[in-house]
Design goal:
With 178 residues, the chain is mainly beta. The radius of gyration is 19 Å and the shape is elongated.
């Protein structure tokens, strides 16, 4: 269970994840959540949320693996123009080179609203894509944590102009080294 306060409201969410091995080289991860969003500035955006994700990860060798993800999200807002349905699917490939893990991840998705916003001629319809390259440097681990860096390219093509975007993001951080 989690309670998150946003700049323009509050979201309460309850989530659960189940991870199960499938043989010695594969695992299945199931995640589900339900919640409620309360926006202070626009009550028409208030509503229930539902999320589900299935992820299957498989080690191809001792140093290489893949993961496939499929997720769905429902945002049920009070006003149908803010209510959306979304799905995404992704593929992650990782490879250990010595004490460095390299990752490449891609994701595609679609989002559709239940109705159109009054200011726009058609309902919101998005096509999302993301490509990410990352590296974890376990050789530089300190106190059980290793530096990680990632560059991500995102594109969201939307029928509603202010959701249409292109973004490049770089990330630097630390992760638990194992």
């Amino acid at each position: 269970s989690a309670l998150v306060t946003l700049a323009d409201g509050t979201t309460a969410r309850l989530s659960a994840t189940l991870i199960r091995p499938i043989g010695s080289r594969m695992q299945l991860q199931l995640t589900g959540s339900t919640g409620f969003a309360n926006y202070r500035l626009n009550d028409l955006q208030d509503g229930k949320t539902l999320f589900g994700r299935v992820r299957v990860e498989r080690a191809l060798s001792e140093t290489t693996g893949v993961a496939v993800t499929l997720s769905a999200f429902r945002n049920g807002a009070r006003d149908p123009a803010y209510a959306t349905r979304e799905w995404r699917t992704g593929l992650l490939v990782w490879r250990d080179l010595g004490r460095t893990t390299l990752t490449v991840e891609g994701e595609l998705g679609r989002l559709r609203s239940d109705a159109r916003l009054a200011l726009f001629p058609e309902k919101r319809s998005d096509r999302y894509s993301r490509l990410s390259f990352g590296a974890t440097f376990r050789r530089l681990a300190f106190g059980g944590f290793a530096p990680v860096t990632r560059i991500t390219f995102e594109r969201n093509r939307s029928s509603v102009e202010f959701y249409d975007l292109r973004r490049t993001r770089t990330e630097f951080g630390v992760v638990r080294a194992f």
